[in-house]
């Protein structure tokens, strides 16, 4: 370690002992534990939010039932019913239009945030709005959804409930003194609790939060979300019961041939999910070109809902009974083809118009129907393969959502939790993975992220360990450090700079006392901008509290510490003695640390290229 104090010391004043930093006064990166008392606090809040979200889920279901009964049957009842059995005749076309008008007015004069299916809006607030959702959305979203779905909108109640639960968590987070990360956790906990309360799927709700909302996998966020889902499941059992939402008889274990066909089926459904996503946004683009205010778009989209509903009444409303019948194999052939095609058409037009509704149930209906059709074709083509039409429907249902949203694990576990069919897990995993692959190859964005991307945002599709967290300071820090003497005069140091010897080009320098112990840090600006006289010791111009980094800190901790302290360089010191200088870390060192990562990536690409060429030569 070079130290110019040994060559240029003028025997200045003795170092004041009060200037030597004590261990407890040195600012070093604080290594936080995985969890702390704050996690317990946030978990408690998440449990409370889950209780309220579960109640809201039941209230919204009752509101949808009320609106449905009033609009289609003229009776006052909160009982959940399907609009498919109405006797309105051609007048059924008018009902969705009235609902669209009401939703448009609520969006225009209440909050435009109620438009859409909820999850993309929640994602956008997490990414760019510090997880702040306006409080009025907590009330307007379920009300608008109740009107839209209750008047025949081809949506599920789960999307609005997820959005409402997320808004509730965000509002609670805004009322309390918590960090943005903690508010994000509450938002995700509320959303996951809403999904659990609707479908009875706590594990898949946690996975959905990880894949679409949290953008991380950390104990401090996973624990509160898991607690919320467990509580929401308990509330659902108390209010609804323990039966799966899509009950069906047990399926048989697939053989090798059947499993291969299910995987191929998943790939085909994944291809369809790409088309479904593009179709929704194509319709949305068409509405964007209309020469009228967007307030009127839901009513225009509702015309298609009413017309299709006149010819196919079962396309209207949430349609959970349709999904259950498809999974049970009660609807087959032309009937299931007509149902899923018309349901898709009604849903795509209505959702593209910007009304309030969800995507999960429609995607499950379309995917389940397509899976059933493909399963029927597979049975005809391979009668001895052991294909179960019900498993084909389950795989189609989950693969459609996996391809459209790319929430792979959530899709697999969701299908299992909502049907309680453990023997379907392997077909689900293979089929959803195939759908995920096809979707990733053909589509850059998903049905959840396309809207955000169109607004100029960017949503990460891959979550990897932070490279800087894997590299320690001791492996990157510069060891040949040029240090200045605290007792040298300012004039001597300035004169040394003018010699332009190696080391004078640096921007920052550690300052040691006569015993070689660290006192502080000075920069070229400190030295040349100082108004002090040239005969004062260098230690007199040290103004900034000493910020250091330890050898066993990660580069991520060091980078965060630089930002927190507002500095571009840090002395590296021994863990047990913050005055023992062992190295020097700069912003340039942080950038250079990525060189190994880039070199490893380039080497891997070269190896692949060489391997491909070798295979080609072998074939010749």
Keywords, separated by commas or semicolons:
single chain; about 625 residues; mainly alpha; CBS-domain; Clc chloride channel; three-stranded mixed sheet; 23 helices; 6 strands
Structure, explained:
- The structure is a single chain.
- The protein is mainly alpha-helical.
- The protein has three domains: about 5-30 and about 470-595, CBS-domain (Roll), CATH 3.10.580; about 35-240, Clc chloride channel (Orthogonal Bundle), CATH 1.10.3080; about 255-455, Clc chloride channel.
- Helix content is about 60%, strand content about 5%.
- It has a three-stranded mixed β-sheet with strand order 1-2-3. A three-stranded mixed β-sheet has the order 4-5-6.
- Helix 20 (about 490-500) links the parallel strand 1 and strand 2 (about 510).
- Helix 2 (about 35-75) crosses helix 6.
- The longest helix has about 35 residues, at about 35-75.
- The chain is elongated.
- Residues about 5-25 have low confidence and may be disordered.
List the helices and strands and how they pair.
Blueprint: H1 5-8, H2 37-73, H3 94-109, H4 119-128, H5 135-150, H6 158-175, H7 180-199, H8 202-214, H9 219-239, H10 256-288, H11 297-311, H12 320-328, H13 333-352, H14 360-381, H15 389-405, H16 408-419, H17 425-442, H18 450-454, H19 467-470, E1 484-485, H20 490-498, E2 508-512, E3 518-523, H21 524-529, E4 549-550, H22 555-565, E5 569-574, E6 577-586, H23 587-619
Parallel strand pairs: 1-2, 4-5
Antiparallel strand pairs: 2-3, 5-6
Helix pairs in contact: 2-5, 2-6, 2-7, 2-9, 3-5, 3-11, 5-6, 6-7, 7-8, 7-9, 8-9, 8-16, 10-13, 10-14, 10-15, 10-17, 11-13, 12-14, 13-14, 14-15, 15-16, 15-17, 16-17
